[in-house]
Amino acid sequence: MTVTGTTTETVKQALETNEPLPGTGGFAGKVDDRLVRDVLGRYPLFFTPDRPTAWSHDPRDLDEAVRLPAGSVRENGETSKLWTLPDPDPVEKAKGLDWLRTALERTIASVDTSGLAVAFSGGVDSALLASALDVPLYTVGFPESHDIEAARSAAALLDADLTVLELDHETLEAAVPRVATAIGRTNAMDVQISLPLFVLAKHCATEGVDRLALGQGADELFGGYEKVARAPDDPRVTAETVAGARRELVGTLPDQLERDWLAVTAGGVDPVVPFLHDRVVAAALTLPGDSLVTEAGTRKWALRRVAEQWLPDEIAFRDKKALQYGSLVSRELDRIARQAGFKRRMDNHVTQYIEHMLDTYET
């Protein structure tokens, strides 16, 4: 096994030039005698410190697994940071939109659609991918959840076929230890996010899907979070500006992407993340703050404007809940935990329930 995500030659050139965004969708692996992982950590990579040949994208393959940080190189037993994300000056608003539109057009046109499906929630991110790629659409959630209703209405507007996977408590409970094992985490938030991804990926794999296109990265890159819109008045961010808060959130992507990659691949398919291609990232980083969040409070404004090329306004400017909330997985996992005796008066009661399920699963 060598490098995943691009060619060895491309990585060698990036190593020589210190170019953090060399025109790829991410990469990780071994090039010559060096372990490498791209600047956003779009593929996970783990190694065993005292065994130079022992490395994998999945920590479960190793007796001792240490994460290689995003943007890093490991050579001769030493790990060093090589690539950092660019911090360009913002461009004029119209120019930023043109650059983003071109980047998205080129990236989406280059996506291989064989064996591909879209994880579809009805929001602007997944709807743009659905409209532009013209592949099967799948959504997941509990009956009457926001995501299922939004996905059905958006699919109708796009005149697209949609497969709806309805969750129940039995399915969710059975998936908890598998997901916690796959992602190597037991905290409630990470497991809540990973559960619908895993269950959906597992179902898609049974239907012959090889790869699942996700909208990951769009909220971080384009100012989709309320805490970014409220900067500097939101205590959840330290930045003094919307653009600074956006960059703060982009910095969380490596940790998130590792989790999502492990959850989806554990389900039997590979994730595809077009919004995180280097050319889209490079264009997004040039957007001024008022292209991320308008004075009227519209979040992800630039992406929504570009999305109008593919989508009706009703979808392009639609608000959407986070996956764990829109699918009702967060609410229902809390309910399952309480039914199992892990009450809310207990500290981190859902996490305690997950750890209990994992101990039972491992036994």
TrEMBL record:
The cross-references to PANTHER family, in alphabetical order and at most eight, read: ASPARAGINE SYNTHETASE, ASPARAGINE SYNTHETASE [GLUTAMINE-HYDROLYZING]
Q: Which Pfam families match?
A: Asn_synthase
In residue numbers, the region (Disordered) covers 1-27
> Which GO terms label this protein's molecular function in UniProt?
ATP binding
UniProt domain Asparagine synthetase: residue ranges: 111-243, 250-342
Which species is listed as the source?
Halovenus rubra
Which stretches are tagged as biased composition: Low complexity? 1-11
Q: Which UniProt keywords apply?
A: ATP-binding, Nucleotide-binding
Q: What is this protein called?
A: Asparagine synthase C-terminal domain-containing protein
